[in-house]
Amino acid sequence: MGDRYAAYTGLKFDRPADRVLRITLDNPGKLNATDANMHGELARVWNDVDTDPDVAAVVLRGAGKAFSAGGDFSLIDEMMADHDARMRVWREARDIVYNVINCSRPVIASLHGPAVGAGLAAAMVADITIAAKSARIIDGHTRLGVAAGDHSAIVWPLLIGMAKAKYYLLTCDPLSGEEAERIGLVSMCVDDDELEQKSIDVAVKLANGAPTAMRMTKYALNNWLRMAGPTFDASLALEWLAWDGAEVREGLASLKEKRQPDFPKDSPA
């Protein structure tokens, strides 16, 4: 696979076709939840991909029964307890979004099962997103008790309009693959047993295209996302303001205890 990917442990790599790199989120037993290690790797990997002469297209997927179940509780606990950890993860959250946007290679996200958190952030700013019918796409920030900050403000309103974006980001209602396709959040929806092959087929088609034309088209189109950069930066900062607050403490406790949260009834904001 090459030395540039040898040090990664939370991400797995293979090449299912010529000049196609497949990146797999892999956290066994936890539905590929992003722990501290995987979160950092998901931020850094796009720089390695961008300079890999043997890669013309990328597929991002999750191992097993899920794409990714969101942030691992251990990472959330660390962020809530330690300022330095919060600053590290803030920088990584920023880099996940901007590094996918700025990676010159086209990225295809392949979603099945739960798709939440940092993995979803990379998927939603990917160039093409293919969802299985089983996909359950959830931006769960407000359910946890923090602002929807780690990617949604930069892209959801552009993809589905402000009315739909506000509904799903405020309520945290899940989206099936079929509904996500219907409202324009993903590029297409396929049967579960077709997802892997369809993702590879699209990647092969892109890998066989004119590379400079592909990369320049991606660069130009992503200026729409770059124009929303200040909105994204603000949303991420607002999310991070809440990581030592009462709402996120109650949100996390309720998730661990598998109950409805009892948030404070008033806000200082």
What does this structure look like?
- This protein has 269 residues and is an alpha/beta fold.
- The chain has one domain: 2-enoyl-CoA Hydratase, Chain A, domain 1.
- It has 13 helices and 10 strands.
- The protein has helices at 36-50, 73-81, 83-102, 117-124, 141-144, 152-160, 162-171, 177-183, 195-207, 211-221, 223-227, 229-241, 246-257, and strands at residues 11-17, 20-25, 57-62, 68-69, 107-111, 114-116, 128-132, 136-138, 175-176, 188-190.
- The strands form 2 sheets. The chain has a 6-stranded mixed sheet, with helices on both faces. A 4-stranded mixed sheet has the order 4-6-8-9.
- Helix 1 (36-50) links the parallel strand 2 and strand 3 (57-62).
- It is globular.
In brief:
The protein has 269 residues and is an alpha/beta fold.
Gyration radius (Cα, Å) is 18 Å
Largest sheet: 6 strands, mixed
CATH class: Alpha Beta
Order of helices and strands: EEHEEHHEEHEEHHHEHEHHHHH
The DSSP helix count reads 13
Q: What is the average per-residue confidence, as pLDDT, rounded to a whole number?
A: 96
CATH topology, anyone? 2-enoyl-CoA Hydratase, Chain A, domain 1
CATH architecture: Alpha-Beta Complex
Class from helix and strand fractions: alpha/beta
Percent of residues in helices comes to: 40-55%
Low-confidence blocks of residues: none
CATH superfamily placement: 2-enoyl-CoA Hydratase, Chain A, domain 1
Global shape: globular
